[in-house]
Amino acid sequence: MHPSPNPKAIAAIQASDAVIYSIGSLYTSLAPSLILQGVGTAIANGPRFKILILNGSLDRETGGFKGLDFLNAVVGCCETSSLLDPNAPIRVQSPSPSINDDSQFNQRMRRYITHLIYIDHPSAPHVDREKLSACGIEGVRLYGRKGEDGKMRYDEKALTQALGVILGRRDAKERSRRNTMEGRG
Q1: CB 54 within 8 A of CB 127
Q2: What gap in Å lies between CA 179 and CA 7, rounded to an integer?
């Protein structure tokens, strides 16, 4: 069984400037949308910006995950989707099991993710900035704050500003919150 998404969703992805993989449960919220037939192809060939926002803390689905594990999961879902797409202009052989042992996979990552926004804190998923840079993905490190439940949360203004910088829509007069662009040096 290979479900297809609503054609309007594919058209919207193809016509957009950016796709933002937002905060949420990786396997119960994000993955089911990405593995639908043709979604990966639409993302790879459509938007200029493909931004993954990591959760501020690990959840029951991702305990022990590092930043690159999230990237690996998202790219694996997108490549699986492309494999199912009979209209895909570029056919991949199969999803790679790990970004750590497959240099070709590292090169293909940028088809699905161009930027990674993450919180720099011990309780947040650890991001290996050198490996991220080797994949050609720009990292945007933000500082968060603890919520009432003790989990790290993004500062809303800093996150909005970071997205604006990436998308080229930041007001030059706006004072920057503490964040750091890293990556393609």
Answers
A1: yes
A2: 37
CB 78 within 8 A of CB 39: yes
Is residue 50 within 8 Å of 77, Cβ to Cβ? no
Checking 23-30 for CB contacts under 8 A at 24+ apart, the result is 23/53, 23/54, 23/55, 23/56, 23/154, 24/55, 25/59, 25/61, 26/61, 26/62, 26/65, 26/70, 26/73, 26/74, 27/61, 27/73, 28/61, 30/74, 30/77
Is residue 71 classed as helix, strand or coil in its secondary structure?
helix
Task: Give the DSSP per-residue string, 1-34.
Answer: ------HHHHHHHHH-SEEEE-SS-IIIIIHHHH
Other Cβ atoms closer than 10 A to 23? 16
**181 has a pLDDT exceeding 70:** no
Nearest to 65 by CA among 57, 183, 141: 57
pTM given for the model: 0.82
Radius of gyration (Cα) for the chain, nearest Å? 16
Q: What is the pLDDT of residues 10-52, one digit of tens each?
A: 999 999 999 999 988 888 899 999 999 999 999 999 899 999 9
